[in-house]
Amino acid sequence: MTAITSSGLTKRFRGGQVAVDHIDLEVPTGSVYGFLGPNGSGKTTTIRMLLGLAFLDVPMPDGATGVLHRVGSLVEGPAFYPFLSGRDNLARCDSADRTADPRTAPARIGEALDRVGLLAAAKKRYRNYSLGMKQRLAIAASLLRPRELIILDEPTNGLDPQGTREVRALVRQIAADGTTVFVSSHLLAEVEQICTHVGVMRTGRLVFQGSLPGLRRTGAARVIVRTADPEGAVKVLAGIGLTDTQAGTGEASAALGDAEPERVCAELVQAGIGVRGFEVASPSLEDLFVGLTGEGFDVDG
């Protein structure tokens, strides 16, 4: 089952520029789906389009009343009244929801504040909140009702390390409670720490989609041999069928392919190559993303 599905989703601006180019999204129900790509790759445009099209098998805009209360979202940062408290801001958000029961509002607001760790700061004015608190309040607004799907656009953008950790922990908790989470990001740390599935955007196109382990498997592993005879090692590696062999100072390497590392090492030793070190290296997530997008990603955050 999927929480979000699109087929050939495209967005063209009036000048003819294609911002989103025929993307086919499949976001599994219950997943934490990382929607990734460099800034300007079309992530936010896609999210804005999705919010006006279809969710949970219901077409939009005709089905908005029946389905949007099941979807929470935070797009391009929080926006609240600075002179109101956190609780009062949430009360205004809740009152704008025509499907919400006003009789249960105080309890639901308190529960949402508690869930994001802001209950003690409920009476504090929003303008006095830290960036991390503001972001958590925005997520609290999306949790005022039970949600099947939460969409978060760059939820840790601009946060300090502490605020970033707080938001990531909150996303993990939301997912653990059974809600599908769709997270737009350009930070690889978020992918590794919270996502189960990923979709990678490049200049408006979806260039990869699948599980995080599936993404890792797209990279070719290499065998690295540390030896005093790298040229001789390269000959042995090529002789047993390994490709893309390279010789450097004190080491030789090759694409491992389907070969068994144990057999490769044994062949080197039997050929008289002195093996000082032997390693099978897989490309990092950063290497994989750069290969997919042609651009670097922020690896910290």
Summed up, what is this model?
The chain has 301 residues and is an alpha/beta fold. The chain has eleven helices and 16 strands.
Give a structural overview.
- With 301 residues, the protein is of the alpha/beta class.
- Helix content is 35%, strand content 26%.
- The chain contains 11 helices and 16 strands.
- The strands form 5 sheets. Strands 8-9-10-5-11-12 form a 6-stranded mixed beta sheet, with helices on both faces. Strands 14-15-13-16 form a 4-stranded antiparallel beta sheet, with helices on one face. It has a two-stranded antiparallel ribbon with strand order 1-4.
- Helix 3 (86-95) packs across helix 4 and helix 5 runs parallel beside helix 6.
Which structural class do the helices and strands define? alpha/beta
Strand order of the largest sheet: 8-9-10-5-11-12
Q: What is the count of β-strands?
A: 16
Share in helix: 25-40%
Q: What value does the Rg take, in angstroms?
A: 24 Å
Characterize the largest beta sheet: strand count, sense, and whether it forms a barrel: 6 strands, mixed
Number of helices: 11
- Uncertain stretches: none
